[in-house]
Prior knowledge:
With 336 residues, this protein is mainly alpha-helical.
Amino acid sequence: xxxxxxxxxxxxxxxxxxxxxxxxxxxxxxxxxxxxxxxxxxxxxxxxxxxxxxxxxxxxxxxxxxxxxxxxxxxxxxxxxxxxxxxxxxxxxxxxxxxxxxxxxxxxxxxxxxxxxxxxxxxxxxxxxxxxxxxxxxxxxxxxxxxxxxxxxxxxxxxxxxxxxxxxxxxxxxxxxxxxxxxxxxxxxxxxxxxxxxxxxxxxxxxxxxxxxxxxxxxxxxxxxxxxxxxxxxxxxxxxxxxxxxxxxxxxxxxxxxxxxxxxxxxxxxxxxxxxxxxxxxxxxxxxxxxxxxxxxxxxxxxxxxxxxxxxxxxxxxxxxxxxxxxxxxxxxxxx
Length: 336
Ligand code: AQP
């Protein structure tokens, strides 16, 4: 082992819910960064199936999507030899710690969460206790692994704040047990918007498939979706955030080619939306193609995928069990 390998890296944890086929938004906002973070962090990446069931899932779909998501993680650069890649429900400590932390969480703390308020307002019928206490499960995910940092977008900042509060609360009530995690704002990363309504985030559960570029879409499908993407009035290819449609396409071109926004503006000066959309379509299709091919290869090897996920769960389980046993002991649970 080299000296470098001996140095303990900070721990990071993140996850994605297996509620649909991953989109180019997941690549831009999560997986691309995750793959780079493997150089500087000890990474735990989970397929968050426990979180997925806060919205009703068809069991057969959930099973399929869980394996799809695992294969897509690997296709997008998550290396199971370097990172711990696992399915959340395979490590029961997540739900066990959630109970203990739930008993330290005020009702007011969960009801203040803006994501809960938004989601519960949208569909009152489907509001369940799981959706309400989801941030406590998220705190458990993070605290079990003594994560130093958590990559968060704007929408998760409030949840991370609760994780920090709960870690401090437990540490003060008993004795230092949890590391208090810091938010990690990745250097790169972009929010990708819906192709049909660029004021909305591109989401894997969008009913309108034309709004979404799935990482499994073929070249032709990608080119067509981009051709039909909603653009704004005007004809200039300028990176103006107020022109949301064209700004989104510029972001996609930047993501797929690595060219800066300035370079892109110069390249398309005096050219129309039609020509630009064709170039974006070609670039995105070329960018996604190798990932899709690797994904398809992996997805046909169930045995290998399952082996990887079982190994990941064992590794994650060892760390999680250590933390949970401290928590149980300090809480006053007997062990014989
Ligand atoms: N459009 C996006 N642009 C940038 N980043 C995105 N992420 C998701 N969509 C985009 C990033 O992916 C991680 C979590 O994904 P998730 O699927 O667990 O949750 P989500 O953000 O709720 O994604 P969806 O697609 O909108 O899921 P559904 O439709 O199931 O609710 C985060 O890092 C997020 O920033």
